[in-house]
Design brief:
Helix content: 55-70%
Structural class: mainly alpha
Number of strands: 2
Strand order of the largest sheet: 1-2
Low-confidence stretches: none
Order of helices and strands: EEHHHHHH
Strand content: 5-15%
Shape: elongated
Length: 167
């Protein structure tokens, strides 16, 4: 008994007739995707799976684009934003005066966080004023992004370890 098979050139899917129209025939080609498309799909799946881990990098990239757009439309806003660059240090100092933390480690972490937030605020003000593509500002953006991403990953790992220990 010999079976005759069709060549695997294309698959045909028949969709039932629609109201008063002709039958719809959808032809799917089994051609392999180009390597670049498969690589892009794999990278997209990986990025979606690990999206929480890369949150600081996504935020930094969005800030880079946003400051570039603001710089193109109205660069003088950078002067107004410069005032807010020192706000994190003021909040930290006010918090230290109101209630001093019990552990030295908490003081150090809060001071580092305030310094990093002030550096980020200064970068935003300068990037709006001078443009984020300026070599010094772009280098500062890359360094701040690297530091924030590293701190984010370390903090996530430490918090997941302490959660497991408390259970």
């Amino acid at each position: 008994m010999s079976r005759r098979t069709r060549p695997r050139a294309a698959s045909t899917v028949r969709i039932p007739r629609q109201r008063g129209g002709q039958p719809v025939i959808l032809v799917l080609s089994p051609e392999p995707q180009p390597l670049i498309t498969r690589a892009a799909l794999a990278a997209g799946r990986w990025a979606w799976k690990h999206r929480r881990s890369w949150a600081p990098t996504g935020l930094a990239t969005a800030l880079l684009v946003l400051t570039g757009a603001i710089h193109v439309t109205e660069p003088r806003i950078g002067w107004a934003l410069a005032v807010f660059a020192l706000a994190p240090a003021g909040v930290w100092a006010w918090g230290m005066l109101r209630r001093r933390p019990t552990s030295r480690q908490a003081v150090v972490w809060r001071a580092l966080l305030a310094a990093f937030a002030a550096a980020g605020g200064a970068w935003v003000a300068l990037a709006v004023g001078f443009g984020p593509a300026h070599p010094a500002l772009f280098t500062a953006w890359a360094v701040l992004t690297l530091i924030s991403q590293t701190g984010w990953l370390v903090a996530r790992r430490l918090s997941s370890v302490t959660e497991k220990e408390t259970r």
